[in-house]
UniProtKB/TrEMBL annotation:
This is Uncharacterized protein. The chain crosses the membrane at residues 7-24, 44-66, 78-96, 102-121. It comes from the Bacteria. Keywords: Membrane, Transmembrane, Transmembrane helix.
């Protein structure tokens, strides 16, 4: 439980830092966008590291949440705390959307894709039998 709660907090913190380190101006100009990272490469590198750590931790929560929801739906032994953490992850993404919409869209998309890709479908087949 402690490990999973830490993942949730770490994912939110990394998402928030990514939004702060990776600013997107409202009238988007690609040349200005690239110039920011050429002038300050440390911010780009930091944002990249925080992004990778954050979306992987969120993807693990999504993966475990989907697996536990599947178990709960099939009336097998499931852990409701993991389902609750997955729901809290949605609250976390909502707060991040309020902070930076486009950065959170990218962050959320990568987390969902990686979480779905990492699902173990053979585990689902064994459960159905």
């Amino acid at each position: 439980m402690w490990k999973k709660s830490t993942r949730l907090i770490l994912g939110f913190g990394c998402g928030y830092l990514f939004i702060l380190l990776f600013p997107i101006d409202s009238p988007f100009e690609f040349s200005e966008f690239l110039l920011k990272f050429v002038v300050d490469p440390f911010a780009f590198f930091s944002a990249s590291i925080v992004f990778i750590i954050g979306f992987i931790t969120n993807a693990l929560i999504i993966k475990e949440g989907v697996e536990e929801t599947f178990l709960f739906y099939n009336r097998k032994e499931s852990n409701l705390v993991e389902i609750l953490l997955a729901l809290l992850l949605l609250v976390s993404f909502y707060i991040l959307f309020q902070t930076g919409f486009w950065q959170t869209m990218v962050f959320f998309s990568f987390s969902i894709l990686y979480g779905i890709i990492s699902l173990d479908f053979s585990r689902f087949k064994m459960i159905e039998e």
